[in-house]
Amino acid sequence: MASLRSLRIGLTGGIGSGKSTVAAELAALGATVVDTDAIARSLTQPGGAAIAAIAAEFGDGFIDPGGALDRARMRAHAFAEPDARRRLEAILHPLIREETSRQASRAAGSVVVFDVPLLVESGRWREQVDRVLVVDCSESTQVARVTARSGWTEQAVRSVIAQQACRAERRACADAIVHNDGLTREELSAEVKALWKGWCASL
């Protein structure tokens, strides 16, 4: 539960929703942002804490020549073999939880934002945060944003969307929703600032 000293916000949204932009806005306002995706990436970089276990579980072929996880190969493997995702998560999730807790314990401000793409899917985050903020937009907007920034095909983006919680499931878990369809950066920033003002007033 929230205390007079801190507020724990769970931030989530589908791929291409603008969640990372909202996280950056919150950080600029003074929140400590704990980015679980960034933590996962660090664990799978050369020398990362998960690399040895991934190689042991999946084989050296899933490690690229530089010593990092071959993310493209693992993504394709997980799409083809659903159990592969579970096996990878069994390696990564305990390490992510450990690092998440470490970063949160070092937070300097009164608001800690946990940026968790799969917050709803995990089934455990709702009880660990005081509020859930969902960044929402249409599927067509998600596809347009991701194909424009990453070069992925529309099919690849829709495959990722299909594996994430649907919009209705995310909205059902939300205490607040930012509808990020057609907003300018200034309009999005204004919405985030209004939420921030309300959160700070509750401390």
Commentary on this structure:
By secondary structure, the chain is an alpha/beta fold. Helix content is 55%, strand content 13%. It has helices at residues 19-29, 36-43, 51-58, 71-80, 82-105, 119-122, 139-150, 154-163, 167-173, 185-202, and strands spanning 7-13, 32-35, 111-115, 131-136, 176-179. A five-stranded parallel sheet has the order 2-3-1-4-5, sandwiched between helices. Helix 1 crosses helix 10 (185-202) and helix 2 (36-43) crosses helix 5 (82-105). The longest helix is centred in the middle third of the chain and has 24 residues, at 82-105. The radius of gyration is 18 Å and the shape is globular. The protein starts with 6 loop residues before the first strand and ends with a helix. The mean pLDDT is 93.
The poorly predicted ranges are: none
Helix content: 55-70%
Q: How confident overall, as mean pLDDT? A: 93
Count of alpha and pi helical runs: 10
Structural class: alpha/beta
- The assembly state of the depicted protein chains is single chain
- Strands in their spatial order, largest beta sheet: 2-3-1-4-5
Main sheet specs: 5 strands, parallel
Distance between the termini: 11 Å
Annotation, overall tally of beta strands: 5
Secondary-structure element series: EHEHHHHEHEHHHEH
Principal-axis shape equals globular
Strand content: 5-15%
Radius of gyration: 18 Å
